[in-house]
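Thread amino acids onto this structure.
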């Protein structure tokens, strides 16, 4: 059974969605979010986090609202205090093959599969469910409304940022460590001058225009 119903108005308490699930008899609730849907290069990374019932970690919020320093500190707090953390990714090749939405759903499912213990209920940021038999609720702007989803957003963001720094060393010249693959002016100019790298998303505007045709 999949639940996608929302509260009539946003809850003031960021544990309200978790507590609602607990009242319905669920015990292990995973928050799920992703990082990297918009960039022109690199994978999309998803994370799933199960927090102990009632646990509050001060400062946890939508990762986009936090500085890199705060994200790194909270990443360590979450990894230490969570009951379980899972991550999944979808490569640029998969993104090009099945589109970014389906690739994101794939990464989220992989993140859930990595959890141990396994959850019995899912809270998912956004409006798309995943191909999983577990009961699940989608929450628009869930990374601001659910502590579990916010924790997942931090894990996903920090994990992806670290991967992009690694890719910067492997594919120098594009500035991945600085912009993490997003389409800023310096990145667009690097694509124009160097052409797409092996980790660029070739179906994305800003990249596909610079693919050189294969000579026959």
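Threaded sequence (216 positions):
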């Amino acid at each position: 059974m999949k639940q996608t119903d929302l509260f009539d108005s946003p809850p003031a308490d960021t544990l309200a969605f978790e507590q609602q699930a607990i009242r319905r008899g669920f015990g292990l609730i995973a928050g799920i979010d992703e990082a990297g849907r918009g960039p022109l290069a690199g994978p999309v990374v998803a994370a799933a986090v199960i927090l102990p019932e009632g646990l509050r970690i001060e400062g946890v919020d939508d990762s986009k609202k936090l500085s890199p320093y705060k994200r790194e500190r909270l990443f360590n707090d979450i990894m230490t205090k969570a009951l379980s953390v899972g991550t999944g990714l979808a490569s640029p090749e998969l993104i090009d093959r099945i589109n970014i939405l389906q690739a994101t759903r794939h990464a989220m499912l992989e993140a859930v599969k990595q959890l141990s213990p396994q959850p019995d209920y899912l809270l998912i940021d956004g409006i798309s469910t995943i191909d999983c038999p577990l009961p699940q609720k989608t929450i628009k702007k869930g990374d601001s409304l659910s502590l579990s989803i916010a924790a997942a957003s931090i894990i996903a963001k920090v994990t992806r940022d670290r991967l992009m720094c690694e890719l910067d060393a492997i594919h120098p010249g594009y500035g991945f460590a600085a912009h993490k693959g997003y389409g800023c002016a310096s990145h667009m100019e690097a694509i124009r001058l160097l052409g797409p790298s092996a980790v660029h998303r070739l179906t994305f505007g800003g990249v596909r225009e610079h693919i050189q045709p294969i000579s026959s």
